[in-house]
C-alpha cells in the first residue's frame, strides 16, 4: 500500500502543476462578449456617427471582404493592437465597411465588447455573430490587448453567395 502511494503522489503533483499553470495562462486572455440586453447598449450607427472618438481598424484583405471592425476608444489609457488589422482613416471607408458587413445577414453581424481578463473594457468589435468563437484576444501588457486577425465570411464554405 505504501509503495502505491509513493508511485501516485508524484503523478498527482505533476497533474496539479499542469492544472495550476494552465489556469494561470488562461487568465492572460481577454474576452469577446455580447452587449448586455438591458442597460447601456451602443449601435453601429452610434459608432459610425461618433467615429472620431475611436481608433478604428478592420480585418480583411480589402474593404469588400471585411471580416470585422474594431473600435478602440481614444479617451482611455487602454489600447487594442493586432498585426492583421488595417487602420480606417475616414468616415467614407468606415461607411463602406459597415455596408459590406451588413451583407453578411446570414451570419448576423453584431457589436461585441472586448474585455480584459478582469472584465475591464477595451473597445468594441463588430463582426459576424455565428463565428465569434474565432475571435481571440490576448494580454500584451497592463494596458494593451492583442486582437488576432479574423477570417471574412466570404471565405467560409457555407457563405450564401459564394460561387463554387
Mean pLDDT across all amino acids: 82
Give the overall form: elongated
Task: Tell me the fraction of residues in β-strands, as a range.
Answer: 25-35%
- In the sheet with the most strands, the strands line up as 1-6-7-3-2-5
What is the ordering of alpha helices and beta strands?
A: HEHEEEEHEEEE
* Rg, Å, rounded: 20 Å
Describe this structure in words.
With 164 residues, this protein is of the alpha+beta class. It has one domain. The chain has three helices and nine strands. A six-stranded antiparallel beta sheet has the order 1-6-7-3-2-5, with helices on one face. Strands 4-9-8 form a three-stranded mixed beta sheet, with no helix packed on it. Strand 6 and strand 7 form a beta hairpin. The longest helix is centred in the first third of the chain and has 25 residues. It is elongated. The termini are far apart. The model has no long low-confidence stretch (mean pLDDT 82).
Feature tags:
single chain, 164 residues, 6-stranded antiparallel β-sheet, 26% helix
In short:
With 164 residues, the chain is α+β, with helices and mostly antiparallel strands. Helices cover 26% and strands 28% of the residues.
Topology:
Blueprint: H1 2-26, E1 31-34, H2 44-49, E2 54-59, E3 68-73, E4 79-81, E5 85-87, H3 91-102, E6 109-115, E7 121-128, E8 137-141, E9 144-147
